[in-house]
Specification:
Elements (H helix, E strand, L loop, with lengths): L5 H6 L7 E2 L2 E2 L1 E2 L10 H12 L10 H20 L7 E4 L2 H12 L8 E5 L8 H10 L2 E5 L13 H4 L4 E7 L11 H10 L3 E5 L11 H4 L3 E4 L10 E5 L1 H6 L24 H21 L8 H27 L5 E3 L14 E6 L4 H10 L2 E2 L1 E3 L4 H6 L7 E5 L6 H13 L2
Parallel strand pairs: 3-13, 5-6, 5-7, 7-8, 8-9
Antiparallel strand pairs: 1-2, 4-10, 9-10, 11-12, 12-15, 14-15
Bound molecules: pyridoxal-5'-phosphate.
Length: 416
């Protein structure tokens, strides 16, 4: 298998070559949104130039849109290890969760409860709380241990009961970086017949997703976090998608997927650009993951993400080693290198004596892009007592390099 090649990988991202007054850009902002791969840009241009037309017409450009819709949905199905009629594109994950929450909550009544978590981004918390308020339903929260940064799985037995209608949890935390045992949480929800929703937004850029293995009803992702356009893309299990009657749609639009749960005209260009992301992941699989040319798209994407994980894990180990020598930096997340497989390369931290904004500005002065704030992970930040102050966060993607990790550590060292 050919070795990982930073130069070849980075050449697949046009933005990585840009400089500002001679200074290279260090993109450490991946958890907020990654840089966009060339294949996504090319596909988006193609959609806007070569066949920019609404679907369902009897002429060439519209027919091309129809063909592409089918192709993109089939590929998105492969991305989730599902079928093409089990995926829904939308504006973003938050809008999609709000959309589905309206239909799901119709089944709830007083005396019911729903189980959410303290580790989720608010897009998998806020919409459900609002729906619960409307239906008079109790909200329960699965906590995480603030010392180990893992869910308190044992609590599930107390939280979930025969009146639990929904269990929503997150695959990888956008604040802590922890990768969670979502299969276990979903299984506990399914055992009592609850709807199960998993937020895969922060795992999708780093791990192959497998909706069937997770066993959930909904698995959400946002292509702009995995090298593509600003959009939302969700797996919705077929039986579950059909059971939501009536769907929230206008009367003339088809009852079948993908239209059933995607009201209005979609962004065809975002769909094609997302296809470009799948092509990019497949390319990684062929180049660095040992996937043969005749392998399926899914096999190639899985091989690509697996190769990316190996590269990212090495960067995480490098960062964790480096930061362990910096006593003025407190990392909020798993730090033990033995447990590195239990986290994605998303690192939130506080720097002694400095505000997160001041720290982010120090990075920015070196053209290093990192975030300050709480990143809508409201429950997490409140649980850790940093909701008011916020933290600094940087996150790595497979296009980042060991030299960049050194440069980030150097900036942290300069803040000692
Ligand atoms: C874990 C997680 N879930 C959900 C979201 C919201 O995604 P979107 O911006 O597509 O609504 C984010 C965005 O940062 C996130 O990190």
């Amino acid at each position: 298998m050919p070795a990982w090649n930073d130069v070849a990988v980075r050449a697949a991202f046009p933005a990585l070559a840009l400089t500002d007054g001679g200074l290279p850009r260090l993109y450490g902002d991946a958890p907020g949104g990654t840089q966009v791969c060339e294949r996504a840009v090319t596909r988006m241009r193609e959609a806007l130039v070569e066949h920019c037309a609404n679907e369902g017409g009897l002429f060439r450009t519209s027919q091309a849109t129809d063909e592409w819709m089918l192709r993109v949905h089939a590929a998105a199905g492969e991305f989730f290890n599902a079928d093409g009629d089990e995926v829904v594109f939308g504006l973003n994950t938050t809008t999609l969760v709000f959309h589905f929450s309206r239909m799901i909550a119709r089944q709830w009544s007083r005396g019911d409860n729903i189980v959410l978590t303290r580790m989720d981004h608010d897009s998998n918390v806020g919409p459900w709380i609002l729906a619960a308020e409307e239906r008079g339903v109790e909200v329960r929260l699965l906590d995480f241990d603030p010392l180990t940064y893992r869910y308190q799985y044992d609590e599930l037995d107390h939280l979930i009961d025969a009146r639990t209608r929904l269990v929503a949890c997150n695959h990888a935390s956008n604040f802590l970086g922890t990768i969670n045992d979502v299969q276990r949480i979903v299984a506990a929800g399914r055992a009592v017949g609850a709807v199960t929703v998993v937020d895969g937004v922060q795992s999708a850029p780093h791990l192959p997703l497998d909706a069937r293995a997770i066993g959930c009803d909904i698995l959400s992702t946002s292509p702009y976090k995995y090298f593509g356009p600003h959009a939302g893309l969700m797996y919705v299990r077929r039986d579950f998608a059909n059971a939501m009657v009536p769907p929230l749609k206008v009367r003339p639009s088809p009852m079948t997927m993908p239209h059933r749960h995607a009201p209005g005209t979609p962004s065809f260009e975002a769909q094609l650009a997302t296809y470009g992301c799948f092509e990019h992941l497949a390319w990684l699989g062929e180049q660095f993951g040992g996937a043969p040319e005749q392998a399926s798209l899914r096999q190639k994407m899985v091989a690509g993400l697996t190769a990316a994980t190996v590269h990212e894990t090495a960067l995480s180990v490098q960062f964790l080693n480096g930061v362990s020598a910096l006593p003025h930096v407190k990392l909020h997340g798993i730090t033990n290198i033995q447990d590195v497989a239990e986290r994605v390369p998303t690192f939130s931290f506080s720097v002694q004596g400095r505000s997160p904004e001041a720290v982010a500005q120090q990075f920015a002065a070196r053209n290093q892009f990192v975030w300050a704030g709480s990143f809508y992970a409201m429950e997490v930040a409140q649980r850790l007592g940093v909701w008011e102050s916020g933290v600094v966060r940087f996150g790595l993607a497979h296009y980042n390099t060991a030299a960049e990790v050194d440069a980030l550590l150097d900036t942290l060292e300069s803040l000692r």
